[in-house]
Amino acid sequence: MSEKYLWLAIALYAGWGSVFALAAKRGIRLSLIEYFLAGRKLHWIIATLSYGATTYSAFMMLGLVGLTYRGGVGALGFELVYLSGLFWAVLVGPRFWKAGKHYECVSPGEILTLRYRSRLVGAAYTLLALGFLIPYTSVQLTGIAYLLEVLSEGRISYLGGLALAVFFIILWTAIAGLRSVAATDSLQAGVMMASSLTLVLFLIVKFFGGLAHFFHQVETSYPQWLSVPGNGFFTFRMFLNLSLPWFFFSISNPQVLQRLLVPASLREMRKTITGFLGFGFVYTLVTVTLGFVALCLIPGLANPDLATPTILSRFSVPSWIALFVVLGIISAAVSTADSIILTLSSMFLSDLYPKKGEEKKRLLLAQFIFIPTLCVAVFLFALGRFNLIALLSVTSSLGLLSVVPTILGAFFTRWGNEKGALASMLAGAFLVLLQLAGWNPFKGWTAPSVLVITFGVYALLGVLAPSRENEEFFATFSAPR
Amino acid sequence: MRKFFVFYGILVVLAYLVPFTILSKIERFTGSFLFWNAFALLCIFVLLLVMRPWNE
Q1: DSSP string covering A78-139, please?
Q2: What is the per-residue pLDDT for A481?
Q3: 8 A C-beta contact, residue A92 and residue A98
Q4: Which of A234, A450, A207, A213 is nearest to A315 (CA)?
Q5: Averaged pLDDT of chain A
Q6: In a domain, A421, yes or no
Q7: What's the half-sphere exposure (Cβ side, CA atoms, 13 Å) at A181?
Q8: Which has more confidence, A163 or A23?
Q9: ipTM of the predicted structure?
Q10: What is the tally of structural domains in chain A?
Q11: What is residue B56's predicted lDDT score, i.e. its pLDDT?
């Protein structure tokens, strides 16, 4: 692909993104609620697109396409099980939102601190999020850098690609916080959806002659890819280990959980979740279809994660479609990364940093110290060029599974307490790290073991070490007993 | 509300079990591919019903 076209596309992307970010800043007075939650006044369409862009990362057009290429239809099941996990957002959402509004919280950790009457719980959640999300965020940057390096045939270096990605994240996050992130996200969600749809339709029409022929070719050439375990990749254990952490994604990942604090009302939250369910369903189908298309067009790839870039560089895809897709992948990566950075900085400010001083000064600290520092940390991590995209993504979602009992217990058990919350989070994180280091007492059933043990520890300490119930907290969302 | 959640739980369990058992030998788009799509659409439908009273 021509380097000139690549730079043109990047310049256009930078230009329109910055215009959107600056437009979002006009006429607002910055405060913590304004900066991190967009003043709870985000229009539901923007909120929906931003939720979609934050959730769906570069993993979709690179990792999920590769997963379909390697294992077939199990990838669709895995991703749709994730989508069905929005159940947890629907279950927790109203209580979380009411408590957050009552106490004027900006971060999920702050709500946990208030529920468990312990800053340690909020701090532990923040540290876990930092530990598991910095590698995941660096994967987004790695994706962009590799993509630009491959497509420009090395003329845009890995380092250059990384620097570009960090520049966009700092710029669009610092301008107006969630307002600028959401404005650029909504634009990027549109690019992600339109570009992937255009590419899939173009390939199916040009190389298969239509959808019916495409289905026929997959069924005749790769029938084992249409069932599970099928070709043997998606064993039940593999499927469970991959899908279980993602089933809880909507409450375990703070960058999406925090979005439940943003709507102005429950009606707006309903519209946002409804819109996202539609977006997610279509985007999943499109990316999985691309995986099947790649399987038919370029069989035998040693690294299936490179299926999309290989199609773009090897087939006669018109330059404008190829560039559109590249922008779609960059958009997916940047929109996920900037939301994570924004959320982590809000958690750092609310749950780790001492709560004193003027709001304006604290905000400046977030804008000019925390956000750039987090970006540098992510940049340095990505410099390691760890060729472990899948492993790092799985580790992050597995690690964050440890917080699920603490979050669910905060709203649905009166007996859940600080000790149970802290012990279950630590036990879960420790277990994930031990299993990744090679300790394998559960014979590879990693995700179920983390879930069972964390819930067990939470319940056991809740029952054995009862503490005074937090009636004031429960009164924020339920009628008094 | 509880009946919706029970129904949802059954749906999720089926999403794990059916493709690995009943549909494991059907190597066509009308097998697991169609099943998981139908599962997702049903889930979305149930969630819309659960969220219907959110009118505050």
Answers
A1: HHHHHHHTHHHHHHHHHHHHHHHHHHT--SHHHHHHHHHT-HHHHHHHHHHHHHHHHHHHHH
A2: 46
A3: no
A4: A207
A5: 89
A6: no
A7: 30
A8: A163
A9: 0.96
A10: 1
A11: 62
The 3-class SS string of A293-324 reads HHHHHCCCCCCHHHHHHHHHHHCCCCHHHHHH
Both tokens assigned to A378:
């992510």
Q: Taking CB atoms and an 8 Å limit, are A94 and B54 in contact across chains?
A: yes
Structural domain span for residue A322: 3-389
Positive or negative, the Cα torsion across A74, A338, A257, A350?
positive
Give the pLDDT confidence of A175-232 residue by residue, as tens digits.
878 888 888 888 888 988 999 999 999 999 999 999 999 999 999 999 999 999 999 9
**b (16+ CB within 10 A) / e for A240-263:** bbbbbbbbbbbbbbbbbbbbbbbb
- Domain assignment present for residue B11? The answer is yes
Report the distance separating Cα B17 and Cα A137, nearest Å. Answer: 33
Q: Which amino acid makes up residue A24?
A: A
pLDDT, tens digit, for every residue of A118-162?
A: 999 999 999 999 999 988 898 888 888 888 887 888 888 889 989
- Tell me, yes or no, whether A453 lies in a domain: no
- Kindly give the residue spans of alpha helices, DSSP state H, lying in B1-56: 2-17, 34-51
Q: What is the pLDDT of residues A373-427, one digit of tens each?
A: 999 999 998 887 765 566 677 778 899 999 999 999 999 999 999 999 999 999 9
B25–A281 C-beta distance less than 8 A:
no
| Residue owning tokens 């939301």 | A339
What's the structural domain count of chain B? 1
B20: nearest CB among A80, A228, A243: A228
Which residues on B lie below 8 Å from A247 (Cβ)?
12
Q: Which is more confidently placed, A168 or A452?
A: A452
Please report whether residue B56 resides in a domain.
no
**Residue A307: which of A400, A179, A196, A208 has the closest Cα?**
A196
DSSP 8-class letter at A401: G
Distance from C-alpha of A16 to C-alpha of A12, rounded to nearest angstrom: 6
> What's the rounded Cα separation, in Å, for the pair A233 and A160?
36
Based on its alpha-carbon atoms, the radius of gyration of chain A, rounded to whole angstroms, reads 22
Dihedral class, residue A253 (left if φ above 0, else alpha if ψ from -120 to 50, else beta):
beta
Q: Is residue A466 part of a domain?
A: no
Is residue A321 situated within a structural domain?
yes
Minimal CA separation from A288 to chain B, in Å: 10
- CATH number for the domain spanning A97: value is 1.20.1730.10
Range of the domain at B9: 2-51
* DSSP state string for A13-26: HHHHHHHHHHHHHT
Q: Which residue has the tokens 């990792």?
A: A63
A288/A38: higher pLDDT:
A288
Nearest to A77 among B15, B41, B56 (CB): B15
Convert the pLDDT of each residue in A221-236 to its tens digit: 999 999 999 999 999 9
What whole-number distance in Å separates Cα of residue B43 and Cα of residue B46? 5
Comparing CB atoms, the residue among B33, B41, B50 nearest residue A76 is B33
